[in-house]
Amino acid sequence: MVFAEAAKLVGTPVKALIDKEQRSVRFGDRLVQLLQTIGSGDHDYGFGIDTLPETYSKLANNLGSAVKKVNDKTFIEATTTVVTDLARSGNVIIIGRGANCILCDYPGVLHVGITAPTEVCIQTLQRREHLDPDEAQDYVENSEKARIAFSRKFFKVHPDDGTSYHMVLNLGQMKP
Question: Which of 8, 88, 128, 155 has its CB 3.0 to 4.6 Å from that of 101, i.e. a possible disulfide?
Answer without folding.
Answer: 155
